[in-house]
Amino acid sequence: MKTVVLVFHPDLNTSRVNRALAAGLPAEIEVRDMYQLYPDFKIDVAQEQAVLADADRIVLQFPMYWYSSPALLKQWEDDVLEYGWAYGSKGDALHGKELVIAVSPGADNYDRDKFAKYHVTELLRPFQATSRLIGTKFIKPFITVGASTIGKEQLEQQVQAYATYLTQATLPVLGDFE
To answer: Which of 14, 66, 95, 106 is deepest in the core (most CB within 10 A)?
Structure first.
């Protein structure tokens, strides 16, 4: 299984969590620093579509900003997931592939009985709806809560868990209402 990780962090060099997660992945997983590739937001659509076409498992890794994703990820979706290629009557290029979201909210207060009042998976519903539209299997997200305050030992455990998660032959699909 070919896995590609697209990291959407505006400054990966200064990131503790996203940098560590990406650096801890085995060499056979391709990691792409999307802000380094496209600092001007001018995305090479043909190149990105070729990368996706060649992958079996597509991972979108990003810090959660304002209960959503960084701006470049939205721009990438708008540009790359074109009608007729990713969706529509002839848009089946991604059908059957896996889509994994690896997200790192800064706080650790995501749940109905906590301040945010929503679980992280609920806030990722637009990605799940997109996955359905483009015909990918929406895999249970890999979530690193409390990224702003995570300790060194806990981060090291999370890095190992991430590498283990992405190298599994089979990953669980997230149900429509989980």
So the answer is: 106
